[in-house]
Design goal:
Layout: H1 7-19, H2 22-29, H3 33-47, E1 52-54, E2 59-61, H4 63-89, E3 95-101, H5 103-108, H6 110-120, E4 124-130, H7 136-141, E5 147-150, E6 159-173, E7 185-186, H8 187-193, E8 199-201, H9 204-207, E9 223-225, H10 228-238, E10 242-245, H11 246-252, E11 259-264, E12 269-277, H12 284-304, E13 309-310
Parallel strand pairs: 3-4, 3-5, 7-11, 8-9
Antiparallel strand pairs: 1-2, 5-12, 6-10, 6-11, 6-12, 6-13
Length: about 325
């Protein structure tokens, strides 16, 4: 194993590079000049390259020393960051937490969660990240978010999914459309009417993937759109149809008029829950936010989440399959 300079030796080298004077560098570190000189010689011996040019009054870095300096500084900085993270990890009211949410949960659920969280944990910083549901699991897996509140469309062995609420798919159309008087709509009727008259939300393809006869629905719609708010804009402006989850409708259709009714034969539900990393434990801050979120969901209940209903009172239930 290659011998490397110690942290203390790196600190001495960085201090000497900063002051360019043995006496002042030694004073800043609380060591003797001889101890400082000995440490620098040990580093140069380990890497077999001179780092300093010395004379009686002045110390200058060699070209090798100039190359080595930013790396030494980076090592010390990264170590300091790591120590701070470890220290703060044991303090539930110190640090920050990031949660990724799809639009409908961000609008309907997270304002109450954030308010409750700040009351209970004023010292913690919270960041709510709006992410498209199709790619939200990637944010958790890659560590960009501590956890997510969303649908999980695809099985992912690196993630766990714990369902909290569910909604269902509804037909959406303008109020003057010929279907605006319908109380329900079957999938067969919709496909017979013509999928080219549809604005498709991209998540539909995942939700109907296991339903016979609907596998190729994504290839027949005129539009395929990622954001539900954009779907509603197109429906409003063009007079086309769409099929959307009810929680999203209640969250995003404010101020606009649409007719919507349940899609049946079959009725398709969408599970919304916590997406957490399977192998990476939540930090104390993330755990605190999760507990506040679970409590807030129960507190809001069905009435506080229009278009959705609670599916479980077991806050630690985990589902291996994300599809409902």
């Amino acid at each position: 194993m290659v011998a490397l300079p110690t942290i203390r030796q790196l600190q001495m080298f960085v201090a000497l590079a900063r002051f360019q004077n043995f006496r002042r560098a030694a004073q800043s570190l609380g060591v003797t000049q001889s101890a400082l000189s000995q440490s620098i010689k040990q580093i140069e011996f380990l890497i077999n390259v001179p780092l300093l040019q010395r004379n009686r009054r002045h110390v200058a870095l060699t070209s090798a020393g100039q190359t080595f300096l930013p790396h030494a500084v980076r090592v010390l900085d990264n170590l300091a960051i790591g120590v701070d993270l470890i220290r703060n990890a044991g303090e539930p009211d110190i640090g920050s937490v990031t949660v990724a949410c799809m639009s409908s949960t961000l609008l309907r659920l997270m304002p109450a969660v954030v308010e409750n969280f700040r009351k209970l944990h004023p010292g913690l910083r919270i960041h709510v990240l709006e992410v498209d549901a199709v790619g939200i699991g990637d944010r958790v897996r890659q560590g960009e978010a501590d956890f997510a509140v969303s649908v999980m469309f695809k099985q992912d062995l690196a993630l766990d999914f714990s369902p909290l609420i569910e909604d269902e798919l509804h037909l959406v159309c303008p109020p003057d459309h010929e279907f605006a008087t319908r109380q329900q709509m079957s999938w067969r009727e919709l496909t017979d009417y013509g999928m080219q008259q549809m604005v498709q939300w991209s998540g539909i393809a995942y939700l109907v993937a296991d339903v016979g006869g609907l596998e190729d629905i994504s290839r027949r719609a005129t539009y395929s759109v990622t954001r539900i708010s954009t779907v509603l804009d197109i429906v409003s402006e063009s007079g086309l149809l769409s099929v959307l989850p009810t929680l999203a409708l209640s969250s995003l259709s404010t101020g606009r008029h649409f007719h919507h009714c349940p899609m049946v034969e079959p009725t398709i539900h969408r599970s919304i829950g916590l997406i957490t990393p399977r192998e990476r434990p939540l930090s104390p801050a993330a755990t605190a936010l999760r507990e506040v979120l679970l409590h807030t969901v129960q507190e809001l209940g069905d009435e506080g989440l229009p278009g959705a209903r609670l599916v479980s009172t077991n806050t630690h239930r985990q589902a291996r399959s994300p599809r409902s």
